[in-house]
Amino acid sequence: MLNDKYQKLAEALNEQFKDALILTEEPMKGHTTFRIGGPADIYVEPDYPSIISLIQFLKEQDVPFTMIGNGSNLLVSDKGIEGVVISLGKKSAGITIDGEKMIVEAGAMLSTVANTAADNGLTGLEFASGIPGTIGGAVYMNAGAYGGEMKDVLESVLVLTENFEQKTMTPEELELSYRHSSLMEKGGYVLSAVIKLQPGDKSEIKAKIDDIRAQRTAKQPLNYPSAGSTFKRPEGYFAGKLIDDAGLRGYSVGGAQVSEKHCGFVINKDKATAADVLKLMHDVDDIVFEMFGVHLTPEVRIIGRDIN
User: Fold this and answer.
1) Which pTM does this prediction carry?
2) Stretch 43-53: mean pLDDT, rounded?
3) Does 15 participate in catalysis according to the annotation?
């Protein structure tokens, strides 16, 4: 049951942000690719022009908030998320082509941006065509696949800093490295990005995208909900191989399972809870460390009430 504070806040949000989708006690399992997660007190999908004023309003009200994209790299607590979840999606997904540059709002899906690039004869973003996330999330974690990563194609990023200032930052200023940006430590929110590509042959670009998608389908457990690669790649190793070599292919806790198709993925095989996934991740890390002396660090972002 939503308490009076958040009930009144929801009413105020509905009054002030009429173009936003505002839901109360919204199950987060419907907004993550893991299909796991308890309710957000308030869930908001703002249009792009309202993002800054919405954040400012919440800060003035001293309300905790969490910003997400497509929820493709998230594990949300079974107890949900305190305060407001701001989801940047279809209402903040504009794409503008300017020669060899693309100006992209944070809620745009990577697959859509990659396809738009291909349609306009621009190459360099094919690696991202199968990543099920948004531009905002991809910049935040410097997403990558198939030999490419976001820092390779970013020219600049418009960020709303923790001090509530809009700032254009370069990839160097964002300190982009393997699955990392300075936003993780310093805070801040991606509003949009300028992507610099090169002219190319449309048919060749689309053929490369098709090939990458075929590889993903062949190698990854796309028929089950997951958050993609569960662990970061340890230096000098591959997480999936370590897990497989530890005899953990198919290892299960409750409804969560180490994928039998790709050991780097933990899947929601049968109505898994966040507690199932966390227990499985801890078990896998303990066993791999015991056998090989290597700790596995989560790549998935773990958020919500009483998460541990």
Assistant:
1) 0.92
2) 95
3) no
